[in-house]
Amino acid sequence: MIRPLDARFVTTAVAPEGYPGGGTPEIAFVGRSNVGKSSMINAIAGRRKLVRVSHTPGRTRTLNFFDVDLEVDGERRTLRLADLPGYGFARVQKKERATWERMITTYLAGRRELRGVVSIVDAEVGPTQDDMRTLRYLAEIGRPALVVATKLDRLPKARRRPRLRAIAEALRVNPHQVLGFSATEKQGLTAVCQALWELSDRASTVVDP
Ligand code: GDP
């Protein structure tokens, strides 16, 4: 049994000086704009509007931190979720993209509290070039990654499992690293929370600077 007990916004940051302190194990969420990242974080938090579900894709340009208290089999733990700005926004200028990339890579490579990264892909569309680059980058820097394919409700039931396998193949990850999810059907939430819990148990992959 896994359930969210409480959730709250912590802070917004654009650089390490602004990252929250406290040493809470952290899980980051990445994905292209409009993939369903806010909806997924809200579902994990058990709140409808912790993160605003955006109707203007690409508007968020900051790292947003949330704390979620989860209970698993009677054990209570706080996980910090880092919502990273969505990528693949066509109208973004080259220069703005470089600034954005620096903000994300500085965080992903250096954040000591970071235990793992959830890469969110669209189950219907499949992985994009940006998703593939992200996974390659995470492997390079040695960060544990979990792929969650969302909007699974848009696929007929018979196509869901084969699609998840195809996503794993395209991203060159183990099929066990790919979970299916739907915010609208409330599907896959327990498995995702369980995976986050297990990630938060792992040691930090950042060695002393
Ligand atoms: P974000 O930009 O990645 O944070 O994405 P949002 O969570 O704001 O969602 C973008 C759009 O996709 C919204 O219109 C949501 O209602 C829709 N959406 C999010 N999750 C799901 C899902 O699991 N299934 C379906 N069918 N639509 C979803």
Describe this protein's structure.
It is a single chain. The protein is α/β, with parallel strands linked by helices. It has one domain: Rossmann fold, CATH 3.40.50. The chain contains five helices and seven strands; from the N terminus they run E-E-H-E-E-H-E-H-E-H-E-H. A seven-stranded mixed beta sheet has the order 1-3-4-2-5-6-7. Strand 6, helix 4 (about 155-170) and strand 7 form a beta-alpha-beta unit. The chain is globular. The termini are far apart. The site of guanosine-5'-diphosphate has 19 residues, from helix 1.
In brief, what are we looking at here?
The chain has 209 residues and is of the alpha/beta class. The chain has helices spanning 37-45, 94-110, 129-140, 157-171, 189-200; strands spanning 2-13, 26-31, 63-72, 75-83, 114-122, 145-150, 178-180.
- Described by the principal axes of the CA atoms, the overall outline is globular
The CATH class assignment is Alpha Beta
How are the strands of the largest sheet arranged?
A: 1-3-4-2-5-6-7
Q: Using DSSP, what is the number of strands?
A: 7
Terminal-residue CA separation? 38 Å
CATH homologous superfamily name? P-loop containing nucleotide triphosphate hydrolases
On the 0 to 100 scale, the average pLDDT is 90
Using only C-alpha atoms, the radius of gyration works out to: 16 Å
The major β-sheet equals: 7 strands, mixed
Helix count from the secondary structure assignment? 5
* Corresponding CATH architecture: 3-Layer(aba) Sandwich
How many domains in all? 1
Series of secondary-structure elements, N-terminal to C-terminal: EEHEEHEHEHEH
Heterogens = guanosine-5'-diphosphate
Structural class: alpha/beta
- At the fold tier of CATH, the topology name is Rossmann fold
Low-confidence region ranges = none
The helical percent reads 25-40%
What is the beta-strand fraction? 25-35%
